[in-house]
Amino acid sequence: MPTSFAASPSQDGASTPPFERILQALADPVLSLGPDGTVLYANAAAETLFGGWVVGLAFHDLFPAYRHEQDAARENGPRTLVTQQDLAFEARFLPLGPGQIVVTLRAAEPAAGPAAEAAEIDDLTGLAKRRIFLAHLAAALSQDADDAPFAIHCLDLDRFKLVNDTLGHAIGDLLLRKVADRIVSACGKGDVVARLGGDEFVVLQHGARSQAEAEKLAARFVDLVGRTYVLSGHTVNIGASVGTALRGELTQARDVLRNGDLALYEAKRAGRGRFRLFQPGMDTLLHERREMEIDLRRALALKQFELHYQPFIDLATDEVIGFEALLRWRHPVRGNVPPLAFIPLAEENGLIVKIGEWVLRTACLQAASWPGDRVVAVNVSPLQFKADTLLETVRAALERANLPARRLELEITEGALLDNTENVLATLNALRDLGVMISMDDFGTGYSSLSYLQKFPFSKIKIDRSFVAGANADSEAILRAVASLGTSLGMAITAEGVETAEQLARIRGERCTHVQGYLTGRPMAPDRIADFLARPDAHAPLEDTAA
Ligand code: C2E
Ligand code: MG
Ligand code: MG
In this structure, which long-range contacts are made by residues 362-366, counting pairs with CB atoms below 8 Å and at least 24 apart in sequence? Predict the structure, then answer.
């Protein structure tokens, strides 16, 4: 941002290095500030000091609550300022044009702190560790709630592990330092920032009386931490999830922290990269989910899962060429829990890997007894790809059922290709080499999308039912575009969720090759399949036996 120095001396002769280059070469941090205290320029030393990125921040973000820079510039005297991390600097303020100020910083002699405190400080980030944080929290709680309102913010980084795994720990460490700096820069003087370990941080915000005050800081954390980092030449994007809790009437540190944690959990569930303020209902929600989780853990052992099968039809021959396996959970008290009500939870806690293995084994075994050469399509969660056991699970399931690989089709969603694409592609290729078909499920609903089709030669694209049902011009255009793209890439196209004869007629006109929906068959219990196939009009509407 050197343009902010436009008002600077411009006597650069041909032989003089440009002003900007001199500033960049200085070992001491130099900043320029606008009339309102916004940082307009920072040289390299200043960027390093404050974590790489300061232009646009307020000077009092860098030096907590220091708001006297205009006075200091008038008096031209040095000041000792302390950063959030308690680094002391001798600052000189020089007026420069109307309202603009140049600030130069030089490290002050370190004050001899008590050696004992070193053990309480996180080496990597210079932040307090848990014990100091708890001491501050206890001190704040010992004061009257009206006199000493505060909020805490529990922060957790999104995708930090991915950075560590792909770029190495040195970059991971660098990132944590910069994150710490950004968190600190958002805080006010006296606020306490601690690193609890890993990528977890916690902040004690003094004086936060209202939700709005706490939310403002929480939003700032999400914004600042979520901005791009450049680390040793790598561009890195992560996010922060923040759980915020006001002190309220609480008196115990552990209750305050628990509320912050609950809110953090909700922030992550809501999709990460956001903050949530603690609400009293959150513990009930968590409690219900825990109960559901306990039930879900037992469901496999208690044989509460079943697979139902929905037929799909080849539009060229109007024959049922296969069935998609759809998971059903019959719980004695909860009743029939639909997959969308428990699969996200099973993905959250990793249970989906075991459940998915059961689905694969069972689907292969049941399909082996079907008449003809029909295909069984099995949904595979992105989590199963991450578990690294998918290839082996599939191989074992086929072998045990004595089912030829060409009769198994795996349905994956775009989510599987999001992270760690290289590994996923390697697994997909190995599965295809095994002879298994791979199709892209729910196409059009995800992250959009067309580039994924070029990364891997899917056998089939399943167009989400929202494009089939939504008979407006947009969905029709999308349906047509995907169908023609798929055709040109040599992929089959299934239209999902076809419910009416009119939709079916439309699909036929759009180069779709397959159809699946209530019109041509609802999901049915495995013992209904033989009857269903024996009917002369085996793709006519059937009763839903799944309900
Ligand atoms: P999906 O893979 O897209 O499966 C199709 C869903 O659409 C099924 O819902 C099916 O019952 C429903 N459907 C089919 N035809 C029609 C129609 O004409 N109209 C309407 N309104 N709906 C139709 P279901 O069984 O509730 O499954 C929902 C989702 O749960 C599946 O979407 C899939 O993503 C997931 N799922 C189901 N079984 C499994 C499984 O074994 N493993 C994993 N990871 N996910 C599964
Ligand atoms: Mg599916
Ligand atoms: Mg689908």
Answer: 362/307, 362/325, 363/307, 363/325, 363/397, 363/408, 364/397, 364/398, 364/400, 364/401, 364/403, 364/408, 365/400, 365/401, 365/403, 366/307, 366/309, 366/325, 366/526
C-alpha to C-alpha distance for 304 and 11, rounded to whole angstroms: 82
CB of 515 sitting under 6 A from ligand 1: no
- 495 CA distance to ligand 3 middle (Å): 9
pLDDT for residue 110: 47
Distance 447 CA to ligand 3 centre (A): 15
Answer yes or no: is the C-beta of 310 below 6 A from any ligand 1 atom.
Answer: yes
462 CA: nearest ligand 1 atom: 3
The residues placing their C-beta within 5 Å of ligand 3, an ion, are 441-442, 496
Over residues 413-421, mean pLDDT:
77
Q: Would the CB of 338 count as within 6 Å of ligand 1?
A: yes
Q: Which of 25-39, 82-96, 274-288, 363-377 is most confident?
A: 363-377
Do the bridges between strand 239-246 and strand 150-158 make them parallel or antiparallel, or are there none, so unpaired? antiparallel
Predicted TM-score (pTM) of this structure: 0.66
Token pair of 499 as six digits: 């419910």
Nearest to 101 by CA among 32, 43, 54, 37: 32
| Å from CA of 326 to ligand 1 middle | 6
Neighbours of ion ligand 2 (CB under 5 A): 379, 411, 441
Cα separation, 79 vs 252, in Å, equals 40
Pocket test for ligand 1, best of 379, 413, 442, 498 (most atoms within 8 A of CB): 379
Report whether pLDDT(105) > 80. Answer: yes
Closest by CA to 2, choosing from 27, 23, 17, is 23
SS3 sequence of 96-108: CCCCCEEEEEEEC
Does residue 389 have a pLDDT over 90?
yes
Which ligand lies nearest to the CA atom of residue 342 in the structure? 1
Q: How far is the CA of 496 from the centre of ligand 1 (A)?
A: 10
Contact 300, 261 (CB under 8 A): no
**Cα–Cα distances in Å, from 354 out to 55, 384, 414?**
49, 9, 21
Distance CA 17, CA 22 (A): 7
What is the pLDDT, as a whole number, of residue 350?
Answer: 87
Measured between alpha carbons, how far is 311 from 501 in angstroms, rounded to an integer?
Answer: 16
Cβ 267 vs Cβ 260: under 8 Å: no
The rounded distance, in Å, linking the Cα atoms of 501 and 56 is 59
